[in-house]
Amino acid sequence: xxxxxxxxxxxxxxxxxxxxxxxxxxxxxxxxxxxxxxxxxxxxxxxxxxxxxxxxxxxxxxxxxxxxxxxxxxxxxxxxxxxxxxxxxxxxxxxxxxxxxxxxxxxxxxxxxxxxxxxxxxxxxxxxxxxxxxxxxxxxxxxxxxxxxxxxxxxxxxxxxxxxxxxxxxxxxxxxxxxxxxxxxxxxxxxxxxxxxxxxxxxxxxxxxxxxxxxxxxxxxxxxxxxxxxxxxxxxxxxxxxxxxxxxxxxxxxxxxxxxxxxxxxxx
Amino acid sequence: xxxxxxxxxxxxxxxxxxxxxxxxxxxxxxxxxxxxxxxxxxxxxxxxxxxxxxxxxxxxxxxxxxxxxxxxxxxxxxxxxxxxxxxxxxxxxxxxxxxxxxxxxxxxxxxxxxxxxxxxxxxxxxxxxxxxxxxxxxxxxxxxxxxxxxxxxxxxxxxxxxxxxxxxxxxxxxxxxxxxxxxxxxxxxxxxxxxxxxxxxxxxxxxxxxxxxxxxxxxxxxxxxxxxxxxxxxxxxxxxxxxxxxxxxxxxxxxxxxxxxxxxxxxxxxxxxxxxxxxxxx
Lengths: 268, 282
Fold this sequence. Notes:
Chain A is mainly alpha-helical. Chain A has a single domain (45-266), classed as MetI-like fold, CATH 1.10.3720.10.
C-alpha cells in the first residue's frame, strides 16, 4: 500500500510541481507558472488533436474488428473457446516493438501489400503506406486489439442464450433480437474495451515513431522528446497532465453518453 | 438458437437463395477467421524473418533461408546482456509485486479499514493512466530525489505498474473464497499462521500463480515506462528500440520467436489440461 502511495501518488505530485516550474535544465524553480500549460497546449495543438483523432479512429476500427470476433468465439466457439482466446492473446507474447517492426516490414515500400495495392491501382506507382497516417493508425489498432477483444468476450460470454431464444420466441427476428437483447447486454464490455484501447492509444508514441514521420507525431512523441532529448521538464510535465486530463474528460463524456448508471448496474 | 432452425427453411428454397443463405450463415465464420489472420500476420513475418539471411544491416527484405540465426541466437553485441537484465528485472519485479499485491488483496477483501475505498481507487488508477504519464511522473520523482537511473529505478517502476494487476487478479480469486474452511481449521486447533499457510495459501495459489505470470509477462514486455527510467541500463525492449534506428539483426526475431513459443506453449498445455479436466469431471 505504502508502495503504491510512494510510487504512484508522490510521483504525480512531483509531476504536478514540475509542470509549474520555470527555467532551463538543470535549474528549475517553482513559480506557479501556469503559462507552461497554455504555452504547451498552443504550441502542440496539432499533435494533441492528432493523438485524439488517431486514438479515436483506432478504437473504432478495433471495435469493428473485435466485436464480431468476440461474438463468434463466445457463441460459436463451443469447447474450443479457450483455444480461440489463446489465439487472440498469443501474438502479444511477441514483444511490442518487434510486432511493430514486423508491420514496418509488411507495409514497407517493396513489400507485398504495397506491391498489390499498386498493381490494382489503389495506390499510385510511387504510393506509399509506410510513413502515412493510415500506417500509424493500423499499427495502433493492431497493438491494442486484445484489450478490446477480451472485455467484449467476457461480457458476450455472460449473455444467457436463453434470453436470445426468448426474444425469437416473442417474434423478434435475428437483427431485432441482437439489437434489443445481445447488444445492450454486452455494453459493459464495449465500455471497458473502448477505455482499455483508447487510453494507451492516445499516449502511444512508438507506432508514430516507427511507422510514421514527424508529420504523424502524436503527443506522446512530443512528451518523449521534451523529456529525454530537450530536457525541458516543465513543458513535458504540463503536456503529460493535459494528456491525462483530456483523456479523463473524454472518458467521462463517453460514460455519460452510454449511460453510466445502467452500466454499473449491469456490472462488468 | 435461431441459427439451428435456418437450414430446414433454406433446403426448400431455390438454389441462388440457398447460396445466399449459406454465405450469410458463414459470413461471421469467415470474418472471425480473417480477424485471426490479421492478428497472426505480423507474427508469421517475425518468425519467417528469424530464418532470413540479411545482406545489409536491416532485416526488412527476404534474402535467403538460413539456420544460422537460430544456431547463434545471442551472437550480436549487447543482446545477451540486455536479455539478462530483462529476465532479472522480470523475475525480481514479479516476485516483489506478487508478495505485496497478495497482501494488499488480502487486506482489501478481509478488512474494512480507513482508506480502503481510497486504496481501491488507487489500485485502478495506474491501470487507466497512459504509460507515458506514469513513466514521466516516476522520472520526475527520481530526478527530484536525485536517484540515479538504472537497474534499481527500472525495478521500482516495474513493481509500481505490476502491483495493480496482481491485486486485481488475486482479489478475483479471494472473492469466491469460503471462509468457513479457515474457521474449520481454527476449530481443529490450527493457529492463524498455520491456517494461513495450510489452508488459505493453497486455496488462493492458482490466483497468485496467474498474477505472478501476468506480472512477469508485463514486465518483460514493458518499453515505455522502462524507457523513461532506465538511464544507461538496457533491457531487451530497449535494445530492440535502439537497434531499430541503426540495424535490425535477425537475432532479435529469434529471441522474440523463442519468448513467443515458450509463452504460447505453456498456455496451450494449460488449455488442453483444463479441457481434459473439464471432460473428466463431466
